[in-house]
């Protein structure tokens, strides 16, 4: 019966999810050289098996020029967004999908995009073009899956889905889809696309300033799932935060003044607060410093405990980004190190 099918599917998912529970995973994604750019030297020397990436720093000599960083996975510049049937490419969404499914089983999940401006954060989360499904990012694939699976389970669990869009700019929280940042019920991917368009309009800036502004604010799309099991009456509550972080680049202190300096200080503060929270969780510290930034306060319920965290760290391959590349990879390695150490020794 469909009931048993769903139970069986749940059991399988549960096993996959057990692997991920309470752990912090970090995936590294390398952006390709952009069209129209002459393909200069890449700072990515080589991408190895098992999540290793070797960076070549042309400004350094000898053995200091090469450094290896280790993550759960590394996706090279030719990896595509979704599930394709070509075996040679490892696809971004294949490795994200089990987390999305677990939200419908009542887990809280956070997915972050981290990296300097222009490294591909928005490409991963939203995709370059909403009109072509092939290049959809994690956000829309996740929503499509959530609606699809909830439909498949309709005989067993009745689900309600709600969406909330917020932006954190200069440590201030703005609701984008609705002013009070409450969540709005949605029934289809189309509903969400419509809401996102409204959200974009509600950003308090014109179109030209939009890119600039979005690189200096954190944007969080939250999907709340509320499910009621029809036979037992028990309630499942899960939520998925999809977070496109502000650009991680350092602003030259001697150059930034006024608003720009203030923005930079807020960004630095909140990104380091995020790093501190995640690494405290990974080290199972007694005190987790959630209160140090708006970002970590907003996400508190979904970081730690039974929640699952995935961070995509993005890097640009150009030589002139080497400083930002190394600092992004260091940040991400710090966030991942403890759990990865444990995972390796189990192999
Ligand atoms: P960010 O959000 O980090 O500022 P974007 O996602 O806007 O960066 O990416 C910068 C540019 O690079 C965009 O033109 C985007 O389409 C392109 N880009 C990023 N990642 C990829 C990728 N994996 N494949 C092809 N183009 C990409």
Automatic annotation (TrEMBL):
Residues 23-338 form the Kinesin motor domain. This is Kinesin KP1. The chain holds residues 411 to 757 of 1109 of the full protein. Belongs to the TRAFAC class myosin-kinesin ATPase superfamily. Kinesin family. KIN-14 subfamily. ATP binds at residues 115-122. It comes from Hibiscus sabdariffa.
């Amino acid at each position: 019966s469909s009931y048993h099918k769903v139970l069986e599917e749940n059991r399988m998912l549960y096993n996959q999810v057990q692997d991920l529970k309470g752990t912090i995973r970090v995936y590294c994604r390398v952006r390709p050289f952009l069209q129209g750019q002459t393909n200069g030297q890449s700072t990515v020397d080589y991408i190895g098996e098992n999540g290793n990436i070797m960076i070549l720093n042309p400004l350094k000599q000898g053995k200091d020029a090469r450094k290896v960083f280790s993550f759960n996975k590394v996706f090279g510049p030719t990896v595509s967004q979704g599930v394709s049937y070509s075996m040679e490419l490892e696809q971004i969404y294949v490795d994200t999908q089990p987390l999305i499914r677990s939200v419908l089983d009542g887990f809280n999940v956070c997915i972050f995009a981290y990296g300097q401006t222009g490294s591909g954060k928005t490409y991963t989360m939203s995709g370059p073009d909403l009109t072509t499904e092939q290049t959809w990012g994690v956000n829309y694939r996740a929503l499509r899956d959530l609606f699809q699976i909830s439909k498949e389970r309709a005989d067993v669990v009745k689900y309600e889905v709600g969406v909330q869009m917020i932006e954190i700019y200069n440590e201030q929280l703005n609701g984008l889809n609705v002013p009070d940042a409450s969540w709005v019920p949605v029934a289809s991917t189309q509903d969400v696309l419509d809401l996102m368009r409204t959200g974009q309009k509600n950003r308090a800036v014109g179109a030209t300033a939009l890119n600039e502004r979005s690189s200096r604010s954190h944007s969080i799309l939250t999907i709340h799932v509320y499910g009621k099991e029809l036979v037992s009456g028990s309630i499942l509550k899960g939520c998925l935060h999809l977070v496109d972080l502000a650009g991680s680049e350092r602003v030259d202190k001697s150059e930034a003044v006024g608003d720009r300096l203030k923005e930079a200080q807020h960004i630095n503060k909140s990104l380091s607060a995020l790093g501190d929270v995640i690494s405290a969780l990974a080290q199972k510290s007694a005190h987790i410093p959630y209160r140090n930034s708006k970002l970590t306060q907003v996400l508190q319920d979904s970081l730690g405990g039974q929640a699952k965290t995935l961070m995509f760290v993005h890097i640009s391959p150009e030589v002139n980004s080497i400083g930002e590349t190394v600092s992004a990879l260091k940040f991400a390695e710090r966030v991942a190190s403890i759990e990865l150490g444990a995972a390796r020794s189990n192999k």
